[in-house]
Amino acid sequence: MLGVVRIFVLLALLPLISFGQKECTLTLSGRVYDAATKSGLPLATIYVIGERKGAEADENGSFKINSFCPGSYKVVCAFVSYKADTLQIELSNNSIHDFFLTPIASEMNEVVVTADREKEHVIATQLTGQINETDLARIRGSTLGETLKQIPGVYSLQTGPTISKPVIHGLYSNRVLILNNGVRLEGQQWGNEHAPEIDPFIATRLSVIKGAASIRYGSDAIGGVILVDPPSLRRNPGINGEMNLVGATNGRMGAISGILNGAFDKRLKGLSWRAQGTFRRGGNARTSNYFLENTGFSETNFSSTIGYKKERFGGEIYFSQFDTKLGIFTGTHAETLADVIAAIQRPTPITPSYFSYSIDRPYQTVKHDMVKISAYYTAPRGGRLDFVGARQQNERSEYDYVPLSGALNPELFLRIISHTADLIWTQRNVGHFSGNVGGSFITQGNVREFQFLIPNFRNYGGGVFVIEKWTKDKLTIEAGARFDYRWLRVYTLDSNTVKEITPTYHFSNPVGTVGASYRVNDRFTITGNFGTAWKAPTVNELFSYGVHQSAASFEIGNKDLVPEQSYNLTASLLYDNSRVHLQLEGYSNVINHYTFLKPALQYIHTIRGAFPAFTYTQVNATYRGADANLSYNLTPKLSLFSKTALLFAYNETLHDYLVLVPPQRFENGFKFELGKWGNVSECYFSASHMYVARQNRVPPNSDYAPPPPGYYLINATIGCNVHVAKQTVSFNLGATNLLNAAYRDYLNRFRYFCDDLGRNITLRMRILF
Amino acid sequence: MKKIHQNSVTLMLLLSALLFYSCNKSEQTIAPIIANEALTTIQLQLTNVSNAADVQTPQWEQLLDNKGNPLPADTSKAILNLAANSTYNCSLLIYDKTQNPPTNVSEEIYNRRNYHLEYYQPTPISPSNLIISNTSTDIPGTPTSATGPYLNLVVTRTDLDTNNPPLQVGLSTQFVTGAASTGRLRVVQRHQPNAKNGTYAPGSSDFDVNFTVNIK
After folding, report:
1. pLDDT tens column, B156-202
2. Distance from CA of A321 to the nearest CA of B (A)
3. Contacts of A7 (CB under 8 A, 6+ apart)
4. ipTM of the modeled complex
5. What are chain A's domains?
6. Least Cα separation, residue B198 to chain A (angstroms)
7. pTM here?
């Protein structure tokens, strides 16, 4: 009587867990019912706590979970908009148990799995990483760049405590693509001091594709792609919501974020909405011994969605706005080479040390608006058509010191407006084949005012791709191809004749991917992928000519740059049993025409003195490395974890190292489940030791100071959930740099001027209603 | 049913088409370049206190192109000829020649003298004569010469700002020459918002230029 069993995968590449040692062939089966109507609940989720075992109920609500060893288990059955039911069961024979779930007003956010087919990974054989909902809830309050550091292989490039950009396998800026709710985030991401304009509070999950993902997303996905996904809109009629409160001692930071989800009934059935908003405010950050003057920030974001969903088709309109003001540490006011050298030689900055929330010049303001329209249609015989169209407007102003005119204007203003459209056809599964074919289009217009940093430009780009997957038994093979075209026209004045000139560029590039994944047995899966990717030259690489403020360098663009081409070979090994989870990944990324700033070994003299000149040059570079993520259940309550990221980059053309390559990193820790008392449950305590090595692989003449020494940090968190009436409130108290160590990080530009952050204790509260 | 969804899809496509028709061509209008803190010309105006006809006006200049980037510097007039064993009163004049007529920046600096400080460093100088203090125009870290010959020039600031207690500024100075000698004079303007304390270290340099000095 049992229907077809569907085994559901928790993380992208995790196979079913099974025990290895004894005869473990017991089964637990049954049916999930709505307690009121007694009808079966299809697609309800049943999972076993502490084991990575689970199943999804079929269209009748029936389920079956295999391969139990005799023993005691805690099984949870859950479904969106229903109260979860927990079963404590002793298994010594095959057993049958039916679950009866009662509906409630609030979404069950404790359920880690999401049964949403729309979010399946499009490239199945590439390296991926994820921060799921539970883990994300435990680190709320940071910027996107800071939050992603949890994933081995992902680092962050910082400009002080408030500006952080994600780095995947050593690559960043225009080599990492960020998808904000399915739309390419387009701003001035070429800048090392330009952080992504995304509110991590909109996301229920953060995923990372570590590798050549141009096949699906086009130009710029050489290092990888970061996907920021909000949860699906509510479907059951009613309203629910979530409120997050965060307070942190360092910078006396506070953040408040709220979400309201609603769905209509009766005549408006199928119509859902969401409203979300976040406010964050912080003052001067503190290193282990002193405050950093003018490092406060203020951020206000909101987003709203309206969606309509019917059986075969649906659509959504989404608006969002991200607005931030970031203070820049006054101790970085080094306009000349002599000032940078003097700052490097001082053990502590000479700026006054005090706390304040005020943000004065110098500071940055960024405003990013997005409107997105998406629609889908499912064909009667299978297959699905998806359309996503978006318009983004990014305005960035930089306010520097004003010694002369005292004007209220910024020193620099850039506005870029991007329109994108994507159309994708996901074919119905035919035999063992599945796949999709699609096309994307982009156009952008950039306008500058005040200082000249990058010129005005207009670009158009288009791409078409096809990705096919063949799955049979234990083997999956995937292949894809894509062709992209980009047209760029720059509007600027000729330096000599003062006449308007419009240099125009065309770039076109095919990319391909081929990969395979083989599930050797229930515990062990190996995956390999070879993919190519490309990146068009960015306007700053082509047209820079001037002093880079606070970098005390004179940067010179190169109008003859060609697109970067990357060839990335990746392999991963996944091992899972009841006690051990091991993810081992290796990659070798060869990038031709890799563009970087090469020291020209000469000085450009300005009224401020001599500045070393750097020119944008192209070489062949390789980025090779390995990431490992291991967790071991020492006892059912105590698990140990270890994360390692190794990276070796090399400039093959010049037989030299490259700048700003993240050094080796090792994090080891443990997590202890503390159990429950009365209304308090899911209590845990976790602590970790993170060691970042000194980067010794650096080229000469490329930096003003040698890389800082290696350092280690101790972090710890304690948290639990409190159930009050129908609400669940999650608390956690976390400490980073618990020992208040003084350290400097090689990937933080402020390392010339000051130490990194001292101890920070954060209290987080999450209320579901 | 089919008609409804067809209409919905059409509506969606129409709405998105609307998004695209809001394209404008604003990038084709190039906004003028307003360079950050353009300073192009540093002039010293010295008058011999005992000989009003002896007026020296050396000038260091580096003009900018239409994007605010530096053209080669013109140091042909950056030569200061002074009489030996004399005293000169000196005014520092700063101009922005990217504007037409040129802006007199020294007036703006004077209005903001509470966070600006001028340094005048003659070289070669002996170690005992390199004085680092709140009232000296010497720059820390200047290389000294153990033997001679030295440039026999001492510069002192003669103006004060309105800080509490008042600190020197250096837009008005006095040059005292000794025996005939040659050397260089480095002139640096330090910009020290909220941080001026009489020392060189805080803030950053707005300009850092050199003059050749001949004392005869």
Report:
1. 999 999 999 999 999 999 999 999 999 999 999 999 988 899 999 99
2. 17
3. A16, A54, A55, A56
4. 0.84
5. 26-101 (2.60.40.1120), 117-226 (2.170.130.10), 227-768 (2.40.170.20)
6. 13
7. 0.83
